[in-house]
Amino acid sequence: MQIESDFFLQDTELVAKKLIGHYLCRETDEGLLSGIIVETEAYLSTNDPACHASRGKTRRNATMFGPPGRAYVYFIYGNYYCFNVVTGPVGSGEAVLIRAVQPVEGKKLMIKRRGNKYSEKNLTSGPGKLCQAFAIDKHFDGHHLRDKPLYLLSNDGTAEIGTVKSTPRIGLSVAKDKLLRFIAEGNEYLSR
DNA sequence: GTTAAGATCTGCT
DNA sequence: GCAGATCTTAACG
Q1: What CATH number does residue A88 fall under?
Q2: What is the domain range of residue A33?
Q3: Is the pTM of this model over 0.90?
Q4: A48-CA/B5-C1' distance, Å
Q5: Exposure string for A67-97, b = 16+ CB within 10 A, e = fewer
Q6: For the residues A37-41, what does the mean pLDDT come to?
């Protein structure tokens, strides 16, 4: 099912929590890829120094200040991309980082895109990995996530995700204490 | 123009 | 479990 247009206007923490169990879909020339979102993190505009938007608008984070429901993709550590969904009204500068998905369709293609080196559990269990597996790069920055070839679908009841739990965020040097990471508890495809 | 740090991953020990 | 790879971005001179 398609996501309601005002879904991303809710509180960012709530959106991050509710996105667990939603589907991420990617259409490529070689076939359809899809997965169930099992791990997210919320990045807030207020009282959150770990958020890229916390020091004002820059060229990199401009998309975060734009309309909600779009992709914010950025390059990190010289090798990897991170994929976020912009939330909140225009100008708020908040987003949800998609950290891990459970592969559903196109596993074979994901394995190929990851270099034919890894098993199913090591394809999309981290922000850099899932961008590689789903062929998400910088040109999707600003892309509307209801449009092909990269879009989100709400959980129609087929995705079984169990209990959603909140934990501290991963990989930060500041604001590590905040419980803004959300996971499908016990899922085998989490980043850790 | 120059530099330090980063929402990570992989390979080796 | 830990350090290295690797380069863009943003802050500073």
Answers
A1: 3.10.300.10
A2: 7-184
A3: yes
A4: 18
A5: ebbbbbbbeeeeeebbbbbbbbeeebbbbbb
A6: 98
